[in-house]
Amino acid sequence: MQLLTEDAVIVCKHELGRAGIIASQGLVMIGNRKVLVENDPEGRPIFGCPNLGATIKPCTATLAVQGGYSNLLRVNDRRVCLAAAIARGNFYIRTSMGRRMRPACASRRRAA
Known about the structure:
By secondary structure, the chain is mostly beta strands. It has one domain (9-103). It contains no helices and nine strands. The strands form four sheets. A three-stranded antiparallel sheet has the order 1-8-9, with no helix packed on it. A hairpin with a 5-residue loop joins β8 and β9.
């Protein structure tokens, strides 16, 4: 089981858009980095998505995670976020070695 920390890199399907992650708790740390908990990777803005055109909207925010929160580990009654977090769509968590893991979060499109 791999836990996500504030150093997690969450990218959109287009691999250049990055979600800004902020850890909401400071009690539990791994290697001096805050562990992400429930709702931390959700609703986060995405910057730099290259998917832009006349009829194409860029990825703008992550959506709700559909699975990947621990049912065993909690911090302040909020489940910790696992590296296998899955939402709707095609977002990825990049590992420190640059490999992509399973889809992580989806995008919210701006209304035209």
